[in-house]
From TrEMBL:
It is found in: Periplasm. Its main location: periplasm. NCBIfam families: RhaS. Residues 29-285 form the Periplasmic binding protein domain. It comes from Shinella pollutisoli. Belongs to the bacterial solute-binding protein 2 family. Keywords: Signal. Gene3D superfamilies: 3.40.50.2300. This is Rhamnose ABC transporter substrate-binding protein. The lineage of its organism: Bacteria, Pseudomonadati, Pseudomonadota, Alphaproteobacteria, Hyphomicrobiales. It holds the Pfam family Peripla_BP_4.
Length: 329
């Protein structure tokens, strides 16, 4: 009887030890967003939870402040340090303000990355951009060319003439333009990211270029204004509006036919990739120039000299999926 009791106690202790070990091995990855209650980030969390389920030994802590402030994120980060999480993946409200708190986290052995909206290099191990300028430049011209098998005249409606990212994207677009035979870029105009001016500039394009077949607007304000102007001019089916936009703002224009397709990053893929990268770093991967970090179903991300990398091509939205994503962002 005494032997049996001893065996039972030993077995119970062994089960407890196994359970504690399993619990200890669970990696805690915090997905820190700009603010809670934003559809884009809720979608990113969906991707992060998908990654956690796929990995099996990960708990994703989805968190952020109630307002988009650096102070709120710093408070969240300090709380996560106290919880001794294994990694923090943050979309930053401020490039520099979060650095001291994130450095403190790294000093405690926590792997820190930024994604979507970056922090300064000294405050993270790497940064995940949703895409890259060459990928975006190629995508915006491809969206127009894919619907013009015989070629045709295309115009660009940008934001401001001094907008750095817009100008780089257009420059990258022009680099790959020779790959798209028969596509002629006849004009580039600027709507200053103002809806009314973008609308008027589109009207001007329609009047000045009677053979216009597509308008590329790599700006979420411009693409909506251009689609509305094309609709009001009775040019749906004649002029296709494409570029970069939000599903919630473009769903109606896709349904009407003013826009056959457009692109922007997929937040689900972004949250998934950030979680996978954090997990890779926890397990010993090193973030250094030239390194390739694992992103699960999204492949790998190669880091540049600033320890930054691009996830993928912008995600394309059309009649097959825009309504689903319009509910998200």
């Amino acid at each position: 009887m005494k032997i049996l009791k001893t065996l039972l106690v030993t077995a119970a202790v062994s089960v407890a030890l196994i359970a504690n070990t399993a619990q200890a091995e669970t990696k805690k990855i915090a997905l820190v967003v700009k603010a809670l209650g934003i559809g884009f980030f809720e979608a990113a969390n969906k991707g992060a939870q998908e990654a956690a389920k796929e990995l099996g030994d990960v708990e994703v802590i989805y968190t952020g402040p109630t307002t988009t402030t650096a102070e709120g994120q710093i408070e969240v980060i300090n709380s996560l340090i106290a919880q001794k999480v294994d990694a923090i993946a943050v979309s930053a409200n401020d490039t520099n303000a979060l650095v001291p708190a994130l450095k403190k986290a790294m000093d405690r052995g926590i792997k820190v990355i930024s994604w979507d909206s970056g922090v300064a290099p000294e405050g993270r191990l790497m940064h995940l951009n949703p895409s890259s300028s060459p990928l975006i430049g190629n995508m915006i011209i491809k969206l127009a060319a894919d619907n013009l098998p015989e070629g045709g005249d295309v115009a660009v409606l940008s934001a401001t003439a001094t907008s750095t990212n817009q100008n780089v994207w257009i420059e990258e677009m022009n680099k790959v333009l020779p790959n798209y035979k028969g596509i002629n870029v006849v004009a580039t105009v600027y709507g200053d990211d103002l809806a009314d001016k973008s609308y008027r500039e589109t009207q001007g394009l329609i009047q000045s270029h009677p053979n216009l077949k597509a308008i590329i607007a790599p700006t979420s304000v411009g693409i909506v204004a251009a689609a509305q102007a094309v609709t009001d001019a009775g040019k749906v089916g004649e002029i296709n509006v494409t570029g970069l936009g939000l599903p919630s703002e473009m769903a109606g224009h896709v349904k009407s036919g003013a826009s056959k397709s457009f692109a922007i990053w997929n937040p689900i893929d972004l949250g998934y990739s950030a979680t996978m990268i954090a997990y890779d770093l926890i397990n010993g991967a090193e973030a250094k120039p030239g390194a390739e970090l694992k992103m699960g179903r999204m492949g790998v991300v190669k880091l540049d000299d600033n320890n930054e990398g691009a996830m993928a091509d912008p995600f394309v939205y059309d009649a097959s999926n825009v309504e689903e994503f319009a509910k998200i962002f």
